[in-house]
Amino acid sequence: MLCSQLPYKNHTVLAISVYQLKEQPAQIEKMESDTKAGPVRVLVTGGSGMLGKAVEHVVMNEGLKREGEEWIFLSSKDADLRDLGQTKAVFEKHRPTHVIHLAAKVGGIYEHMRDNLLFLSDNLRINDNVLQTAHDTGVTKVVSCLSSCIFPDKITYPIDETMIHNGLPHDSNFGYSHAKRLIDIQNRGYFEQYGRRYTSVIPTNVFGPHDNFNKDKAHVMSALIGKTYKAKMEGTPVTVCGTGAARRLFTLSWDVGRLIVWVLREYDEIQPIILSVGEEDEISIKDAVEMIAEALDFKGEIKYDTSFSDGQLRKTTSIAKLRRYHPDFTFTPVKEGIKMTCDWFVANYNSARI
């Protein structure tokens, strides 16, 4: 691999020229036979978070759990995955055959801007510990979760899976973005050197039940839901950071959960796959705010504080690859997903993360 150093404002990043890996049929056949042989124990890191709860819901409540499977959902109370010793201990305890790796240090855009270095270092440790321990303990397959923020800031649209390393990510969350990008590099390394079938998924702007709804720590959709409900309860205006012009592809967590289980069982590439609604469903932050206000029956004033950055104005992604593999999958319409999430938030307000 060719490595060079590029300037990134006041710091330096590593730019890595990656190449396309050709899948080897013999290794694909080996993975399929390994998957079918013996008991299957699936360990889900980040099991108490929004996506972990979504995977748990679809596996346990929608009939996706197969006979003979054991599913273990870890939270940070079970192990601090930044610590290699604790990571090894929890793998030794549960002895997984498969891993869905969702654990990460995450936050809202302004939290990332304040603390990029910590997001980089914590996530590098988590990801390296999980993948190294999975390899050392003979885990058959790992599906790790990336993020749409990993894509270059300066890029042509729509974005697809081949563009991850084609430039620098947006400056607002460079730490988190680079840590997530390196999972793809690690997956390629484990495949090239050891034949490991470790892969990753790239969901876009996920929202849904069990998310963090704190205005400073949440993803944009959930932060807006939390702020709007609070404004309704207090009889005050709701203030939206930025102009509302930024556009996003919002995807319901339960849909992503269903697709992650499909990836674990059916998707054999090492290279990532984007899990998202289609380009035709892209909406502005302003559109999302209006849908939230309707779902929560908020009648108050909506203000836009233009002193705050909008972040990346677009992150439009292509789901051509997903459609090629899974043409029949139907996503929940965003308005319906917002209503469902708002209803869950109101019903669980006292226990929700706010």
UniProtKB/TrEMBL annotation:
<keyword id="KW-0560">Oxidoreductase</keyword>
<dbReference type="InterPro" id="IPR001509">
    <property type="entry name" value="Epimerase_deHydtase"/>
</dbReference>
<feature type="domain" description="NAD-dependent epimerase/dehydratase">
    <location>
        <begin position="42"/>
        <end position="278"/>
    </location>
</feature>
<dbReference type="Pfam" id="PF01370">
    <property type="entry name" value="Epimerase"/>
</dbReference>
<keyword id="KW-0413">Isomerase</keyword>
<comment type="pathway">
    <text>Nucleotide-sugar biosynthesis; GDP-L-fucose biosynthesis via de novo pathway; GDP-L-fucose from GDP-alpha-D-mannose: step 2/2.</text>
</comment>
<dbReference type="InterPro" id="IPR028614">
    <property type="entry name" value="GDP_fucose/colitose_synth"/>
</dbReference>
<comment type="function">
    <text>Catalyzes the two-step NADP-dependent conversion of GDP-4-dehydro-6-deoxy-D-mannose to GDP-fucose, involving an epimerase and a reductase reaction.</text>
</comment>
<dbReference type="GO" id="GO:0016853">
    <property type="term" value="F:isomerase activity"/>
</dbReference>
<comment type="similarity">
    <text>Belongs to the NAD(P)-dependent epimerase/dehydratase family. Fucose synthase subfamily.</text>
</comment>
<dbReference type="GO" id="GO:0050577">
    <property type="term" value="F:GDP-L-fucose synthase activity"/>
</dbReference>
<dbReference type="GO" id="GO:0042351">
    <property type="term" value="P:'de novo' GDP-L-fucose biosynthetic process"/>
</dbReference>
<keyword id="KW-0521">NADP</keyword>
<dbReference type="InterPro" id="IPR036291">
    <property type="entry name" value="NAD(P)-bd_dom_sf"/>
</dbReference>
<protein>
    <recommendedName>
        <fullName>GDP-L-fucose synthase</fullName>
        <ecNumber>1.1.1.271</ecNumber>
    </recommendedName>
</protein>
